[in-house]
# Entry
Amino acid sequence: MEALLLAVLIIGGFVLFALGALAITRSLIHNRTANAHNEVMIALFQGASVTYAVLLGFMVIVVWQAYDNAHKVLADEAAGLVTLYRLTYGIDAYQGAEMRKLIRGYTSGVVSDEWKTFTRSSLGSDRTRKNLGDIDRLFARMPAATKMADTDVDEEILRTKSAVIAARNLRLLEVSDPIPALMWLGAFGGAVIVIVMSCFIDMEHARPHYLMSGMMAGLLGLLLFIVLVLSRPFTGPLPLDPRQFQQALVIMDTVDRGN
# Structure
């Protein structure tokens, strides 16, 4: 519902702006221009349109890469947790059971606790941070004899846990808006300039002029809406959900059953 409302506001706002600006400009310039007026205006409009298209295309690429990277980071973190969970069956039974409990606590904490903090902060939750620290402390307390017996498994656990922490840090960094405010000024300001310039092209018949200006404004509004939605993968109107971690918990259950 929030995404739909935002789409109506942005797209509808641009269309109304274009129609209003066109009504004003037609009342000022229609049938009052020289013969070369449209030739000059169309050349200027094409130059501005191409420049704006380059800016908008750059923004679309940036936000899509950021959105796709955020999705990949989630998958990598969840997959790393499953791998880490499986590796605990290769160490001491008691220590392994304790570590599995902490891994489950971290995974469920991301779903039920940390995801809710994204709208307030990009620091994550204290619960998940403590679970990661407890895994380190548990590993440090393991008897030296146990570590010597499971050297290869221990090294793989440390390597996998480091990968999970790195993925978590990247996920938290992705919570913030990756596009600076100055770029948003250029995106929305550029759209306004292009729309206004199109209104100064003097067409003989008003109806097709209004129709084409409204369609162009709607297209610009649609593209800006898409960029705005994708620019905030965790806190935007269409945020990513923690389904990868929920699936990881299900897989952990199957691992406990010997699968």
The mean pLDDT is 86. Residues 2-256 form one domain. Residues 37-87 form the longest helix (51 residues).
